[in-house]
Design a protein that fits this description.
Blueprint (H helix, E strand, L loop, with lengths): L2 H20 L1 H7 L4 H10 L17 H12 L3 H17 L4 H8 L7 E3 L5 E6 L2 E8 L10 E9 L5 E9 L4 E2 L16 E9 L3 E3 H6 L16 H27 L17 H33 L6 H27 L12 H11 L7 H12 L10
Helix pairs in contact: 1-3, 1-4, 4-5, 4-8, 5-8, 8-9, 8-10, 8-11, 9-10, 10-11, 10-12
Length: 390
């Protein structure tokens, strides 16, 4: 992927931002992003970001893929979050054996893969593979996915258990109509269920193999894309939130000229010193979050290019820094929302949706500032991080 090619995809993503923003309310009302948004994501090339080149994908470095996620999120938080899920899980498919990759990408490099990391299914061995049953809640993007990544517990015949990821066509799942939320409403993060479905052995990988990038059956290995499972997830989640903050700042700046401050003599809110301080503070919080992101990408890509990987301590620090970036983005949106006046309560004003979305995403269990700063703080103090999620 050349710089000019990436620039073209980034510009295409920017071009669709106004439409994504315009479709925000309709996506929220139907509790799933509108079909036009999915078509625009495919047409722009964004969904090819992490797919291998041998299948026609872009195979972007993590930093460039994350920038595309942020751009989409600046138009619509729900669409940005779904894009993050589909793009990061596309990368995750590259940790599976080549046979599984052929099945997923054989129909094209824009395959959409949903799924998460809470082991909510049970696998039992059978001839040639496994039988899988379970229910997975909060499955963002499942309503538009081709495949689903189902975190599960494998029950071995000797009584031992192992956490694994199973790759299953979305058509095998039953999707519940149980997603009706205050925030992230357009993500369609409904519960999905499997009932005794066969999964061939090549479509199941252990968490250990995924975390260490050592899955058997892979002839095509690109060391420059070895970032580690959770560093990819944390960085792309963070950039979805940073993108929402960018979008909120853009909305605020476009809406404020000529707006009076009610019950005062101020006829243009831009002239008020408090507003000037507020918008500068919000912009600086976003810039600080972006600065942290540039540091992760340099570290991750540099280590991958060297053929190495992050130490557990570095991964713990990355967890804390990504959560802190999300906190900065959330604070920026809160400032802008608070400075927008009572009229922002109207559903016709997109700012209120950006505010609600980032409040919701920052509550995700993997992204909580308190949890992740604790992990970072432990290693800074010379203690064990006491978590396998690194």
């Amino acid at each position: 992927m050349t710089t000019s090619e990436f620039t073209a995809v980034l510009e295409a993503a920017r071009d669709i931002v106004p439409t994504l923003r315009e479709n925000g309310r309709a996506s929220e009302d139907q509790r799933w992003i509108v079909d036009e948004n999915v078509r625009l994501l495919e047409k722009s090339g964004v969904l090819r970001a992490a797919a291998p080149k041998r299948y026609g994908g872009l195979d972007l470095p993590l930093g460039e893929a994350a920038k595309l996620v942020a751009e989409v999120a600046s138009g619509c938080g729900s669409t940005g979050w779904v894009t993050m899920v589909w793009v990061s899980n596309t990368w995750l498919v590259t940790l599976f054996p080549d046979q599984a990759q052929d099945e997923v990408f054989g129909a094209g490099p824009s395959a959409r893969i949903s799924g998460g990391f809470t082991p909510s299914g049970v696998l039992t061995p059978v001839d040639g593979g496994y039988r899988l049953s379970g229910t997975w809640r909060f499955n963002s993007g499942c309503r538009g996915a081709d495949w689903n990544m189902a975190a599960s517990v494998l029950h071995h015949a000797d009584g031992t258990e192992e956490e694994v990821m199973a790759l299953v066509p979305m058509s095998e799942f039953t999707i519940a109509d149980d997603w009706d939320t205050f925030a992230a409403a357009g993500t369609g993060s409904a519960s999905s269920t499997l009932d005794d479905v066969f999964v061939p052995a090549h479509r199941v990988v252990t968490f250990e193999h995924a975390l260490t990038d050592t899955t058997p059956g892979r002839a095509h290995l690109d060391p420059s894309r070895r970032y580690g499972l959770f560093p990819v997830v944390f960085t792309e989640c963070a950039m979805a939130c940073v993108g929402i903050a960018r979008g909120a700042l853009d909305l605020f700046l476009k809406r404020i000229p000529g707006r009076p401050i009610t019950y005062t003599s101020w006829t243009d809110q831009r002239q008020h010193p408090l507003t000037q301080v507020q918008v500068a503070t919000a912009a600086n919080k976003i810039a600080a979050a972006e600065g942290l992101a540039e540091g992760w990408w340099r570290l991750l890509q540099g280590r991958a290019d060297e053929g190495g990987e992050l130490t557990p301590e570095e991964r713990a620090v990355l967890r804390g820094e990504t959560a802190f970036a999300i906190q900065l983005a959330k604070e920026a949106v809160e400032i802008l929302y608070g400075a927008s006046g009572a009229s922002v309560l109207q559903k016709s004003v997109p700012m209120q949706r950006f505010f609600r979305d980032i409040e919701g995403f920052s509550q995700h269990a993997l992204l909580l500032a308190s949890t992740n700063l604790e992990v970072q703080g432990r290693v800074l103090l010379g203690l064990d991080p006491e978590t396998p999620f690194l």
